[in-house]
Design a protein that fits this description.
284 residues, Rossmann fold
């Protein structure tokens, strides 16, 4: 069991949630939240390695289309540029960029052989590569944008990776991170346990997969420690699925919550952030 904070190294902490005997800890020094479960530094088992594995394309493709399209419209303003997607999974974001911004040079890196196999064979993406992005030999100061969609929470030691990605960006280039907003996720997990009890296979805080859990403050601390400028936070549309279900009422409620929290964010002069997801822009 790990009890050392991945951001500041302190061993002073308290348990904020117990997920099937795995404590999720809050650092009493810097406030970072992390799972005590010891995961490999370069974990590649998220997608599984079964050759015949079938992926939920309603979730990985259709439910993500709106957020990907909105990001491309708002942040890929130039006619051409260079973009890297780290932890690109099945390649649907890479494919979205290619379809909407054909003059942009886009590549993806992914640790999972199974996911890369799907991206190449099913999505036809020859620009998706298997392995650690640190071994990519991408030239320094060559990229306009780097994205990490639901990736950073899976990485036990994020600082070396972010410092490496910083080196790949051009001056004024940026890293865009999407990750669950932990304070809201914690409330939802506690409500589930209070109503239904703790179930062995329940969906709570993903203690074995989400090794680091972020809030605005700790994203800021991480960014500054890796030489990025003060991060900017944005509100983008949600993934249009609820616990794997794409039924109309689930999508309607999720969109409704998004619009309410967006108005609260702006009316509070960006001081009250209640969205389910953090979207952070880290400029070089």
């Amino acid at each position: 069991m790990n009890t050392e904070c991945y951001l500041c190294g302190s061993i002073n902490n308290k348990t904020v949630f117990l997920e099937n005997q795995i404590p999720i800890l809050e650092c009493l020094n810097c406030g970072h939240i992390f799972s005590s479960y010891e995961q490999s530094d370069h974990y590649d088992g998220y997608w599984g390695e079964e050759e015949s594995k079938e992926f939920d394309l309603e979730w990985w493709d259709k439910a993500h289309r709106k957020v990907y399209s909105t990001f491309i419209q708002e942040f890929l303003k130039e006619k051409e540029g260079s973009i890297l997607d780290v932890g690109c999974g099945l390649g649907f974001f890479v494919k979205s960029v290619m379809n909407q911004k054909p003059k942009w040079n886009v590549i993806g890196y992914e640790m999972s052989k199974t996911a890369v196999k799907f991206a190449r064979e099913k999505n036809g993406l020859t620009n998706v590569f298997e392995g650690m992005v640190e071994h990519s030999n991408i030239p320094k100061n060559s990229l306009d944008i780097i994205t990490m969609w639901d990736v950073i929470e899976h990485i036990p030691k994020p600082k070396p990776l972010l410092k490496y990605l910083y080196s790949l960006l051009k001056p004024n280039g940026f890293l865009f991170i999407q990750t669950p907003n932990f304070p809201i996720q914690l409330i939802k997990a506690k409500l589930k346990v209070a109503i239904f009890g703790m179930k062995p296979n329940g969906h709570y805080l993903e203690a074995k997969d989400h090794i680091n859990n972020y809030k605005l403050k700790t994203i800021r601390d991480l960014a500054l420690s890796c030489n990025f400028q003060e991060p900017q936070f944005f509100m983008l549309p949600p993934i249009l699925s609820v616990s794997g279900s794409t039924n109309f009422m689930g999508k309607f409620s999720k969109l409704g919550y998004y619009h309410v929290t967006k108005w609260i964010w702006y009316l509070s002069f960006k001081t009250v952030f209640l969205n389910n997801t953090i979207f952070a822009l880290l400029k070089k």
